Amino acid sequence: MTRERIHLFDTTLRDGQQTPGIDFSVEDKIAIATMLDDFGMDYVEGGYPGANPTDTEFFSEKRTKTARFVAFGMTKRAGVSASNDPGLTSLLQAESDAICLVAKSWDFHVRVALGCSNDENLESIKASVEAVVAGGKEALIDCEHFFDGYKANPAYALACAKTAYDAGARWVVLCDTNGGTQPPEIRDIVAAVIAHGVPGANLGIHAHNDTGQAVANSLAAVEAGVRQIQGTLNGIGERCGNANLITLIPTLALKEAYTSRFETAIDPDRLQELTQLSHSFDELLNRSPDHQMPYVGASAFATKAGIHASALLKDPRTYEHVTPESVGNLRKVMVSDQGGKANFINALKRRGIAVSRDDPKLDKLISIVKEREATGYAYEGADASFFILAQRTLSSVPDFFHVESFRVMVERRFDANGNLKTVSEAVVKVWIDGQATMSVVEGHGPVNALDLALRKDLGKYQSEIEDLELVDYKVRILNGGSEAITRVLIESVDGSGARWWTVGVSDNIIDASFQALMDSIVFKLLKNRDQVGLAAAE
Ligand SMILES: CC(=O)SCCNC(=O)CCNC(=O)[C@H](O)C(C)(C)COP(=O)(O)OP(=O)(O)OC[C@H]1O[C@@H](n2cnc3c(N)ncnc32)[C@H](O)[C@@H]1OP(=O)(O)O
Ligand SMILES: CC(=O)C(=O)O
After folding, report:
1. Per-residue pLDDT tens for 383-408?
2. Given a cut of 50, is residue 305 above it in pLDDT?
3. How many CB atoms lie within 10 A of CB 57?
4. Which terminus of the chain is more exposed, N or C, with fewer CB under 10 A?
5. For a substitution probing ligand 1, which of 45, 74, 104, 208 has the most ligand atoms within 8 Å of its CB?
């Protein structure tokens, strides 16, 4: 039986950026767009070029290889032509494959927010879509407040959708902007749009989660005929968030209600990387993963001792709706040697490391990782540190250099002109091939000083690390009070454009940073010798 294609549209970098407390840098956006593209999304919406310097810079080049790269903006203002609308002009100049324009489709909004007539708004929709198509780009229209608009004035909401479609929009996306619509209403209203002449193959759904129904509403829309779902990683987004793609993707891929009828572009083998994708994204946001998130949460396949554990030991299907391995998660209780092994073998394979199931070194690696994670390490977000640990445990890693000692000082003092200054200085003693060198460097803060001192004189390796750059540094305090432990995550990049994350954990932030910096340099040296798996440095 032919299955119909559901197109996945990710708006993590646009609607996700509207989440209170979330603010992406250009570097963050590049890292996230790469993750999404690599995972197999059809569309990656990168933000709103022209709205702020970050998004404008992000759209200075195309950031995806396979996914369609989408710029977001709004329809032209009433009273000006499309070619004279500065917002639309700058959108058309952005480097993107497609443009998604938000359009008002609730007459109340047209009157109150835009202050123009209903017909003027329809003219803006038509002219804007035509301008996008004439500019050689795929046009999408986000019909803002479509469901509320339909309830208030069905004829007008339908006219907005149909105008966009007739003008050439590839996708007309029905938005539940305020997030209050319920699944039966979604089903009925989507059916009305299709009956009005906009085919389901050209319809999308953009659901917000204000009543906890964003995923259910997206699936209800698919049932009713839409073929594009917009959502975000881990469900971030304005107010209560957007439809969670990390929940929708496995539901579409694993649940018979959908698998028999639909397919997405996500390679079924990549589903096992879903937990890692979700957790890596949280690491990037510098926040703890939600333990109860469907499929990928640490508790999603956990059970307490007792009746459940006893049945699980007899057959895991007694308490699991899918296997944890299918989404890269782990079963808890049995501390699952079996589940653990499959998971590690898969993760190592991706990094080019082959290990057999009965190799005792694999058991050793699993127990080291579990012990370390219990003390605060998080390897999901630090692929390069995991790679080094795995290589050290399963085979070996060359002792390129040895740091005998380091010292970091922070001094607040008056300079020669009588200005108060805080100065950070680091001293590092390194041994290479029996020769010791001592480097002393001042930096912008203690971690920067330590980084510069570590990389100032690495003897015969110095020329190899000239293009190594640290582009992100994240600190998380793992438990409060005087017992606090610090986790540091560092993102590095080199001249080839490869990026990797390393981790360090200590009760001392400088020491944690030192561990992550060391892993980054060792990883770079291994990479220069073609000794790292592809997935560890993408
Ligand atoms: C539902 C959604 O999530 S839509 C996406 C919302 N995201 C954002 O707004 C984030 C980025 N936005 C911004 O940085 C700014 O709002 C900008 C740069 C786009 C515009 O800034 P400003 O020109 O200063 O306008 P401001 O933000 O104050 O108000 C929005 C204007 O857009 C108009 N507008 C809103 N939607 C539309 C639309 N679909 N079509 C045409 N005009 C629109 C409003 O009427 C208002 O116009 P006014 O200034 O004449 O009253
Ligand atoms: C466009 C959009 O983000 C919304 O209507 O919610």
Report:
1. 899 999 999 999 999 999 999 999 99
2. no
3. 14
4. N
5. 74
Q: Check if the beta carbon of residue 67 is closer than 8 Å to that of residue 35.
A: no
Note the pLDDT of residue 342: 66
Residue 299: how many CB atoms within 10 A of its CB?
Answer: 12
Cα–Cα distance, 33 to 12 (Å, whole number): 9
Ligand 2, residues 142, 146, 210: which to mutate, most atoms within 8 A of Cβ?
142
Can you say how many angstroms the Cα of residue 371 is from the centroid of all Cα atoms in its chain?
27
Beta-strand relationship, 262-263 and 4-5: parallel
Q: Within 13 A of 207's CA, how many CA atoms are on the CB side?
A: 29
pLDDT value of position 478: 84
Q: What is the ipTM of this complex?
A: 0.94
How far is the C-alpha of 30 from the C-alpha of 50, rounded, in Å?
18
- C-alpha to C-alpha distance for 257 and 93, rounded to whole angstroms: 43
Find out whether 346 and 316 touch, Cβ atoms under 8 Å: no
- Residue type, position 536, single letter: A
206 CA to middle of ligand 2, Å?
7
